[in-house]
What does this fold into?
Amino acid sequence: MTTISNAQRPVILTGDRPTGPLHLGHYVGSLQTRVALQDSHEQYLLIADSQALTDNAGNVAKVRDNVLEVALDYLAVGIDPGKTTICLQSALPALAELSQLFMNFVTVARLERNPTIKTEIAARGFERDVPAGFLCYPVAQAADITGFRATVVPVGEDQAPLIEQSNEVVRRINRLSGRTVLPEATALLSRCARLPGIDGGAKMSKSGGNAIPLSASPDEISAAVREMYTDPNHLRVSDPGEVEGNVVFTYLDAFAPDQAAVEEMKAHYRRGGLGDMKVKRYLEEILQEVLAPIRDRRAAYASDMGYVMDLLRAGAQCGRERTQETLDQVKRRLGLFEL
Ligand code: TRP
It folds into this structure.
């Protein structure tokens, strides 16, 4: 396949909206994968501040103030700036231009049918008052992905329809230009793509108030585990309990290094005789162990914000060059007038 990508390693692009600190849901949904893949892939991480504005236009300060928080979270989980390039979306003008071009290859009806967008519009109660930028953010996200010529996009499962929509744009542009201008991308879903909130809600989210942030203190971790939703009918230790939908066990599945021990605990819990307190203590210990090194690394980077700013400036420079190259190619291959 002759694409304009000349990378040796497959290219990853993924990103996060800087609307709050990242949490454990991001960690199991995507961050762990990114850390694991940064050796074998050419990886770009986008801090998607422009996209965050699509539903935060009235709160630019929130978006701005979380840019560095997200950068710190990346570094804290083990994103290595020597291997992965961190890019600020609003610093890459070629993405906005690509997005504007792509807008002509997507219909409003298709955007309104996008399951992710449909769900999000309903959740926010926008109805017809949806900001145009919000309805069109899948197009901008297609520009993000293709602007970096990415073929692998590690995301949570809720984002899969966006990758599909991006590939539709890619196919239209390739068909129109009679060759492969842009590569299609594959969504890389992780083993545990969706971590429930500590309240048992379908998804951990900052806005849902049911998240454990990666920067949580030991006390905050204890409190979160204490509050965690279990089986409401498991009243006495001797009662048989339900494991399905029991958040404590879901988290153990996601984080416990010893899965055989977890299976044993599940069987014991189902039979009766295993109390919530005991399972929670086991989980708390594991979460404390997972989060302690993340918190320490975050603190180390946070003590040198000048360095973090330098990283973001260098990342933006690198991202600008790469996305501009793509934009130039797309314009040429579509057949726009060249000066
Ligand atoms: N939509 C993603 C989210 O809300 C963030 C994002 C922006 C993204 N651009 C991207 C993800 C490109 C993958 C690829 O989390």
About this structure: Residues 1-6 have pLDDT under 50 and may be disordered. The two ends are 29 Å apart (CA to CA). Residues 305-334 form the longest helix (30 residues). The beta strands are 11-16, 42-47, 84-88, 152-154, 186-188.
